[in-house]
Write a structure and sequence with these properties.
heterodimer; A: about 400 residues; alpha/beta; seven-stranded mixed β-sheet; B: about 280 residues; alpha+beta; about 25% strand; extended
Chain lengths: ~400, ~280
């Protein structure tokens, strides 16, 4: 089959590799029909996530058709021919964490848990195509994908919705939704969202679905103007970090108290125009810091007293100069986490079916899998207004 | 559990049994405060560093060679300035008068690891008590042969030490159904060990806390233990990984793996050259 492999930082390639096989008894093989490039794939592409090996197959936002099932898969829950979305974290369905719907914290799915235990104390769930820190599972930017614990991980989709309406249930729609949902949004709340990439777009729309009074979207208009436009189309007020002081604008837009909810949908590779982002740039280049938490610092600084800070943006290692004093003295609540995707799918599918949201709005490019290296380059440079790329493995 | 005291010593060395250096040393010479085994290691590594350093023909090489020379001197004279300033003496530690078992305990390694497994104590005890089940799940156990109701023969892999594997005969010393199994090795085993596994019902509906306690004298004593650790074969890691496999098998019916999945062959010519 054809698959996109990681060779080195800034180098990916479409290769012919062997087809995946059933290895364990609860495995399934799916034929991928649509598979996306995620903003967090760029952290791998840029070489910011450790424990990548040349030849690793990338991709964690796939959907497709079930081709084959292992002998122990619960056939009452999944059958050959089913149309399915694959959540990016792998759950086992049986451990302490899965039973509590903390799917991205599954205790059993990471075969290389000892690596993550050294870095994080305890290991999170295995993830598709996201470094050996989270298991080294072959990813979904390929024609076929092996899915472990198929009966709990594969999510059946109705046939009347097209791929672009449901494929984002694998990651970015639930990720944006959880980012907002875990903040207990009230109807008079102002929600500020840093980063208007695909996750930010879903966060903005989810905050609205959850009844937020006002949503403010923050991004760099000079960098990708289409993103802030997309946020405005959703009904958000926008702040352009290139021309405006974020803190002053947020304070003035909230009657001087700051946003009730601040959401960092940027993560470890943030950029900005303040001295601290220059500091991060230098330190990460000198390998003395892994993450650039400029947005996190700003969000802590801007959040209203007693407010909630939510972090769907991916961080991988260590960041410097986090303003703990502001965080503690203002009594902020911090909510974070890789998304517990499985938990949100039924509710979000319902929203899609009722027409509350059509996730296909975010797609700017559909390209054949064979063109994936060009797609990565284009997405990385945000060329031609590229916001979200869906790859077609059959083309 | 048998509570033997295995205080960790600052120096990872085997204790000597033969020489009584203090009485044999004339007053003018510095006191011997390094054990025989450690002196040997010091001489060998010092010589190696000196040769490697001199081969470099650079300032850095000279520094390495100097360090090697210092280690050589330390090994030959048996006197370590650093130990002296720290008040340590590894030459003295082993006391010939003490009981052999105490000595073994001092050289031994004690490990305890615990895993929360979402199954009942009855299920887990039942699985564990059939010792010949264990090698199917625990990768570091090569074989367990049940001899009779109380005795069994164990073979564990240990690539970094003792030529690939260690073997011992074990006898059950205590067996409380659904709660605890304790064992100790019988005389004549290559590893002198004792241990127990406890099955404790966890709070609420969290299943069972399975705790393995193990005490053993590794071949090569403490030095052997640290050597094994350097090569990633430390017993505590092995037990952690094997217990994790038991947890995964018992909770999900399989052990997650990526072995046998497809991968590419491309190599790097990006910014960082990789192979």
């Amino acid at each position: 089959m054809k698959a996109l492999t990681w060779c080195a930082p800034h180098k990916v390639k479409v290769e012919d590799v062997p087809d995946p096989k059933i290895i364990n008894k609860r495995d399934a093989i799916i034929r991928v029909t649509s598979t996306c490039i995620c903003g967090s794939d760029l952290h791998l592409y840029d070489g910011f996530i450790p424990f990548m090996k040349p030849g690793d197959i990338l991709g964690h936002e796939p959907m497709g058709i079930v081709e084959e099932l292992g002998p122990d898969v619960d056939k009452g829950r999944i059958a050959v021919g089913d149309r399915v979305v694959v959540p990016f974290p792998i759950g086992c369905g049986k451990c302490f964490f899965c039973k509590r719907e903390l799917w991205s914290c599954c205790d059993n799915s990471n075969p290389k848990a000892y690596i993550a235990e050294k870095a994080f104390g305890f290991s999170p769930a295995g993830l598709f195509g996201y470094s050996h820190l989270t298991g080294g599972y072959a990813g979904g930017q390929a024609q076929f994908l092996r899915v472990p614990f198929a009966d709990v991980n594969l999510q059946k989709m109705p046939s009347d919705l097209h791929d672009h309406q449901v494929v984002f249930l694998s990651d970015i729609f639930p990720t944006g939704y959880m980012a907002a949902e875990q903040c207990n949004i009230q109807k008079d709340d102002t929600v500020a969202v840093w980063g208007c990439g695909p996750v930010g777009q879903f966060t903005i729309r989810s905050a609205m679905l959850l009844g937020a009074g006002k949503v403010i979207a923050i991004d760099d208009e000079s960098y990708v103007p289409q993103r802030l436009q997309m946020a405005r189309d959703a009904g958000a007020t926008t702040i352009d970090i290139h021309d405006e002081y974020v803190f002053d604008r947020l304070r003035d837009m909230t009657g001087g108290i700051g946003p009730d909810v601040c959401i960092d949908a940027v993560g470890m590779e943030s950029h900005g125009y303040s001295p601290d982002s220059f500091y991060d740039k230098v330190k990460t280049m000198a390998l003395m810091e892994t993450d650039r938490p400029h947005v996190l610092r700003q969000a802590i600084h801007c959040c209203r007293k007693g407010g909630t800070l939510s972090i769907p943006g991916v961080y991988g290692g260590l960041g410097d100069k986090i303003p703990l004093g502001a965080m503690m003295n203002k009594g902020l609540t911090i909510k974070t986490g890789q998304t517990h995707v499985h938990r949100y799918i039924p509710k979000l599918l319902d929203h899609i079916r009722k027409g509350d949201i059509d996730p296909s709005f975010v797609v700017t490019n559909r390209m054949p899998l064979s063109k994936a290296p060009e797609a990565y380059e284009m997405f990385q440079e945000r060329r031609d207004g590229c916001i979200k790329v869906v790859l077609d493995p059959a083309a | 559990m048998v509570a033997l005291d295995t205080r960790s010593s600052a120096a990872p060395t085997q204790t000597p049994r033969d020489d009584r250096p203090r009485e044999a040393t004339p007053q003018a010479q510095p006191q011997i405060n390094v054990s025989t085994v450690e002196r040997g290691v010091s001489v060998a590594s010092g010589a190696l560093l000196a040769i490697l350093g001199l081969k470099r023909r650079s300032l850095g090489g000279l520094i390495i060679a100097g360090l090697g020379g210092a280690l050589l001197k330390r090994g030959v004279t048996g006197h370590c300035e650093m130990y002296e300033s720290l008040g340590l003496n590894t030459a003295q530690e082993g006391d010939e008068q003490s009981e052999p078992r105490d000595r073994a305990a001092k050289r031994g390694v004690q490990i305890e690891r615990s895993f929360l497994i979402d199954r009942s104590p009855e299920d887990l005890y039942g699985f564990w008590r059939k010792f010949d089940n264990l090698p199917q799940i625990m990768t570091h156990l090569k074989e367990v042969r049940v001899i009779d109701d109380r005795r069994s023969h164990w073979v564990a892999s240990a690539p970094a030490i003792a030529g690939g594997s260690v073997e011992w005969d074990a006898q059950i010393t205590d067996d409380e159904p659904n709660s605890r199994i304790a064992w100790r090795s019988l005389p004549g085993s290559t590893v002198d060990s004792s241990g127990e596994v406890r099955f404790t019902r966890a709070l609420g509906d969290r299943g069972t806390q399975v705790t393995v306690s193990l005490k053993y004298v590794p071949p090569g004593g403490r030095l052997g233990h640290w050597t094994a650790k350097l090569f990633g074969e430390a017993a505590d890691q092995q037990i952690q990984e094997d217990l994790r496999r038991v947890k995964r098998q018992m909770e999900t019916g399989e052990i997650p793996t990526t072995e046998g999945q497809p991968r590419g062959t491309c190599t790097g010519s990006g910014k960082r050259e990789r192979n």
